Amino acid sequence: MAAPAPKQEELQPHAVKDQLPAISYCLTSPPPWPEAILLGFQHYLVMLGTTVIIPTALVPQMGGGNEEKARVIQTLLFVAGINTLIQSFLGTRLPAVIGGSYTFVAPTISIILAGRYNGIADPHEKFVRIMRGTQGALIVASTLQIIMGFSGLWRIVVRLLSPLSAAPLVALVGFGLYELGFPSVAKCVEIGLPQIILLVALSQYIPKLVPLLGTAFERFAIIMSVALVWLYAFFLTVGGAYKNAAPKTQFHCRTDRSGLVGGAPWISVPYPFQWGAPTFDAGEAFAMMAASFVALVESTGAFIAVSRYASATPCPPSVMSRGIGWQGVGILLGGLFGTANGSSVSVFILILAFDVGLRYFVPFWNSENAGLLGLTRVGSRRVVQISAGFMIFFSILGKFGAVFASIPGPIIAAIYCLLFAYVGMAGVGFLQFCNLNSFRTKFIVGFSVFMGLSVPQYFNEYTSVAGYGPVHTHARWFNDMINVVFSSKAFVGGAVAYLLDNTLQRHDSTARKDRGHHFWDRFRSFRTDPRSEEFYSLPFNLNKFFPSF
């Protein structure tokens, strides 16, 4: 017997949504306080992974030991907490965690390798001198984002962004991190793989099998899975499973190899210029400014993803520019306090290897907290503000914060496998506004994504073989400027899509509709959509003194 003919409404495509549906708590609707506190702690746990990677990679090369590493982590957490609060109150007002930005690690390595530090015999003195050099470069680099943001220049750039050019940028912010996923899990597969399986089961399957407890498993899957696998890794460690293992295996698998708990003080409050007065070098400052520009572009993509998972309307260009300005202030704070790197919401991670004298970097940018909004379906601003409170609290109580910071890396990498997938899909989701039957759309999306993956791959392969990037002149600062820019997948893919979308048949009315430009028209000004006031207006009636356009 033939199947019945489908109803007419069943043949219609899914409706386009300005705001993402099925979000439990949107940007302005906070969960109950107990739930909000747990969700905030979960955001804190997720951002710890990247916070620990920076000092673990850099501090030993700067001449520091476990005490200096623990102190830098404390400073990073403290500044991240302040920057997150500033961004949520005065910046974009989105639930974005502003953590350490690894975009700035490549220029920091250049400072580490500078010849003027080679003659310093005392390791601690060398560490302090290099730290002061990075502080000076960061202070200068912060001016780029401060000027671009608060002057409104970045608002002009963002107004030309369409759903078509935003899709590759946001997608590569997430999918471009594939190298940070399973390759890092495989460094200790006996704890990394169980973490992936348990996290998928708790967040996706159990909520459907046990509806009464589904919400709890869905929202707190990371806390539950990390606690279980971390305990399992602890038992493997004390049981002697890695007693005769190779040093690298012990470093990745054991729960007592970080050296953070022993090196961290019980109570310590970071303060500006704690390492001494910053020193300045023009070449190093220019290299940091190039990294700051890359972080600016990637942060724009991450802000767009966060606004989507917070079930808010697209962020108006004036609000985006305001957020970039305050992010520049965050980089300035990083320079004043001495974090050895800047800040961004979409951070670019450099996994460093120092084997047999070879120095090379593999780039990643990190937007895991944006993915956590999608996993939990909670986009509340209050949750991230509570998370910022945890950052500041545990940065002051060093020993307690160091305990959580000692979670083995493969467990964190397993979490990234899910969270970065959510970020990438936020970008793919913007293609719903575009005409996918248009060959112009196919060309721009396909070419930009391919080049965003291919060009950085060339730079990374060249660097891993030669020990330096394709641009290798006598001016190290110039090399860093070019190599950092073209090693970022999100930057390259986003720049190609933006250029093509705004030059290819730009004035054609059909092309304008195909690129989804008309869907975002009412969000290009703060006042043309009433929802912008609800989501993005400043608190305490500050809009009267600092109006958005």
From TrEMBL:
> Membrane topology for this entry?
Multi-pass membrane protein
Domain of life, source organism: Eukaryota
Q: Which UniProt key words apply to this protein? A: Membrane, Transmembrane, Transmembrane helix
Task: Write one Gene Ontology MF term.
Answer: transmembrane transporter activity
Establish whether keyword Membrane is in the entry: yes
Looking up PANTHER family in the UniProt record yields: XANTHINE-URACIL / VITAMIN C PERMEASE FAMILY MEMBER
Record bears the keyword Transmembrane: yes
Signal peptide per UniProt: none
Q: InterPro entries, per this entry?
A: NCS2
Family in the record: Belongs to the nucleobase:cation symporter-2 (NCS2) (TC 2.A.40) family.
GO CC annotations, alphabetized = membrane
Instruction: Write one Pfam family the protein is assigned to.
Output: Xan_ur_permease
Q: Where are the transmembrane segments?
A: 41-60, 72-90, 96-115, 136-154, 188-207, 219-242, 285-307, 319-337, 343-362, 383-405, 411-431, 443-460, 480-500
Q: Where in the cell is it found?
A: Membrane
Q: What is this protein called?
A: Nucleobase-ascorbate transporter 6
